[in-house]
Amino acid sequence: MNTPATAAPSRLEHFVSTAPFEPQSTEVLTAEQEEFYRASQWRIMWWKFRRHRIAVWCAVILAILYGSALISEVLAPYGLNTRDSRHIYAPPQSVHLFHEGRFVGPFVYGYNMKLNTDTMKREFTPDVGKVQPLRFFCRGDDYEFWGLFESTVHMVCPAEGGTFFLFGTDRLGRDVLSRVIYGTRISLTVGLLGIAVSFLIGIVLGGISGYYGGWIDNVIQRLIEIVRSFPELPLWMALSAALPVTWSPIFIYFGITIILGLLDWPGLARSVRSKFLALREEDFATAAVLMGAKPSRVIARHLLPSFTSHLIASLTLSVPSMILGETALSFLGLGLRPPITSWGVLLNEAQNINVVALYPWLMLPVVPVFVVVLAFNFMGDGLRDAADPYN
After folding, report:
1. Rounded to whole angstroms, how far apart are CA atoms 7 and 345?
2. What is residue 16's DSSP assignment?
3. Phi and psi dihedrals of 143, rounded to 5?
4. Could you give all domains of the chain from N- to C-terminal order, each with its CATH number?
C-alpha cells in the first residue's frame, strides 16, 4: 500500500521595505538614548522641571523679585522716608501713553485737590491739563546704596515739580510703591534666613535620630512632639512679644528670623529621619561602614546626597510659610517694627477698617505677598515632581 506523499509546506511571503536606508537617523536616535541613560540625576531633574511651564515662569518671577531686592534704592521712585505733606492719602496715579490722540510717552496726570468741609477729607481728582512725563534713569532723592556710597540715581522719577504715586500715598504722604519695593528686601530675606536656621536644626536632629535610632531616636521624637503640640501662631506671638523693645531694628530682624526658624524644623526632622531609616540599610551605606567610614562621613557623603532633591523641594515649599509668619506677626504689631519696612509692617497701617474703606490702596502691599507665596508653591510643585526623575 503506497502512502500518499506529504504536501510541501507553503512558503511565507517575505516583505522587504523599499525605503532607502539612512544610517544617520539611527545614530541620532541612539545618541539621544545614550545621552539620557548617561545623564546625571540633576540633569534629568532639570529636563523634567523645564517641562513644567508654570513652575518655570514662577521661578523667573521669583528670580526677578530677589534680583530687585538687590537694587531697591535704584528701583524706588522716592526715598524710603520721603514725605509730601501736600499729598496725604493721595490715590494711585495711572500711567498713560497718549494725550488727546497724540503720543506723549509714559506720563501721569497731576492732581487737583480740595478739602471737603463736610467730611474733612482731602479729595484728589486727575487734572488732564497737567501732563507730567516720567523721567527714566534720572536723579532724584538721595540714598545710601547698601551703606557703601551715596547716590541719587533712580530708574524712574516724576516730572520736575510733579508727582508719581503709582500705588498712592499713606497717612504721612509717603509713596506706597517705594515702600513696597524697600519692603521686598526684608520680607524675602526673612524667609531665606529662617529656612537656613530651620534646615540646619532639622537635618542635624533628623539625621542623628534616623541614623543611630534607639534611645537617641526616642528622645528626639518626644522633643518633636512637644514642639508640635504648641499652637504655632500664639507661640510665635508670645516669643515675639518677649523681644525687648529697646533692641535696635537689626536685632529685632534677626530675632524674628531665629524665632521663625526655631519653630519650623520638626516637620523636616521627621522627614529626614524616615529617609535615613530606609537608606542606612542600603548596600552602599553598609559598605561605607565596613570600610571604616565615620558616621559623620556616612551621613554627609552617602545618605544626604541620596535625597538632596527632596530637600530642595521641601525648602521651596517652606519659604512661603516663613514669609506669611513674618507678615502675620508684623501685621499684629508683634514682629518687625518701624523704621524697618516690610510688607507686614506696611499692612499694619491698614488694620483700621475705616481707613481701608476710605483709602483701599493701603491694602496693595498684600499683592506681592500673594504673588510670592503662589510662585513658591507652584515652583515647589514643579521641583517635587522633578525630584524623582525616574518616575
Report:
1. 97
2. -
3. -155, 160
4. 74-177 (no CATH), 181-386 (1.10.3720.10)
